[in-house]
Amino acid sequence: MASSAAGATGWLRGRVKAVPSGDCLVIMAVTTANPPPEKTITLSSLVAPRLARRGGVDEPFAWDSREFLRKLCIGKEVTFRVEYAVPSIGREFGSVFLGDKNVAQLVVAEGWAKVREQGQQKGEVSPFLPELLRLEEQAKQQGLGRWNKAPAASEASIRNLPPSAIGDPSNLNAMGLLAANKGRPMQGIVEQVRDGSTIRVYLLPEFQFVQVFSCRNPEITSDEPNGEASAEPRAPLTSAQRLAASAASSAEVAPDPFGREAKHFTELRVLNREVRIVLEGVDKFSNLIGSVYYPDGESAKDLALELVENGLAKYVEWSANMMEEEAKRRLKSAELQAKKNRLRFWTNYVPPSTNSKAIHDQNFTGKVVEVVSGDCIIVADDSVPYGSPLAERRVNLSSIRCPKMGNPRRDEKPAPYAREAREFLRTRLIADR
To answer: What spatial distance separates the first Cα and last Cα of the chain, rounded to whole Å?
Structure first.
């Protein structure tokens, strides 16, 4: 997980992939391997409050503790060292540095974890124990984090979790949730990536725990790690962990090509990240179908579109029919381009024979089937068999630019007169040849 020089000293480099709790990090190697090796590190000599497990409740300040560490470290490059292990519980303990900052010291200084002076065995202790104890005493005196002395602060820090988060996920009323929120962006935090196109997420602020499907991607083996490490693997599991474990009990099957790569692609972008979910529908098994948008700099990206563009997922007609026409068209266009470039899933793709012809500097006839904007239309080419994905051609009117329509899923409003420009064109061209 690092250079030989770093390995000789015991220090390794990696990137934080997930943060299961306020004292635990999943760190993956910075390497070209796909997916890369990873380790789950519990911070030496620290004990953070525990999040709710099945049928239970959070310990006071557990969520705040986890969130502090998540926001501090997720996606960041760190240096770490394993200092001791406890084989009986399958855990490794160590120190983690973010730049020149000791992560454990940052956590303790803000009051989000207790310091444990000695483990059960000699040597099970952080080499930075004296400084950790000093910072803990300082946090106590200042009433920081879990040492908050305000009346009712401890009780107020405990989440009021719905049944879907700590009990049977079948208690979730998927149809009711869809009816109340269809097409409306909802904030969430991704707790698990089941595969490239399926995530399990807390919807905020109610903490409904839901599974959301986007597009179809290659399957992976059921025993693949799913990015959610348990700090106490022998304790009763949370709903998220129980759902993850249920996959491991199924029969092992051979993985599809690029299944692991698709899952890793999604984990890098959304695992333990804040996302926006736009629900589109529910399938016959009450699984939620929706779009997932994750931040990328100042903009937001559509996870399904990114997967399809990179040849790691397929366009699926039945679920795409729940989406708006423009979103469907983008996915279909992305898949056609991935096929053309023979990316990953489409490495051995052979296009079917077609009667379509290139139209460079040529005329063609067809029917206008959609008006996208004031300067863009979709025309069904008469020379291509009806129903073929290649039949519809996007035509942009040359030498003009109309106001953009915006994108409600990305909170982009239409430019002034964008709707009027599209309506002007629609009333004159739709269904005409």
So the answer is: 61
d(CA 210, CA 322): 18
Residue 338, SS3 per DSSP: helix
Q: What is the DSSP letter of 344?
A: G
Distance CA(246)–CA(173), nearest Å, equals 21
Write down the pTM of the prediction: 0.72
The 10s digit of each residue's pLDDT in 189-199 is 999 998 888 89
Q: Which two tokens stand for residue 384?
A: 């291509």
Q: Which domains does the chain have, with CATH numbers?
A: 4-156 (2.40.50.90), 163-346 (2.40.50.90), 366-429 (no CATH)
251 three-state secondary structure: coil
Using CA atoms, how far apart are residues 51 and 58, in angstroms rounded to an integer?
5
- Phi/psi for 145 (5° steps) reads 55, -125
- Other CB atoms within 10 A of residue 377 CB: 22
Whole-angstrom distance, CA of residue 288 vs CA of residue 175: 9
State pLDDT tens for residues 36-92: 899 999 999 999 999 988 778 899 999 999 999 999 999 999 999 999 988 888 899
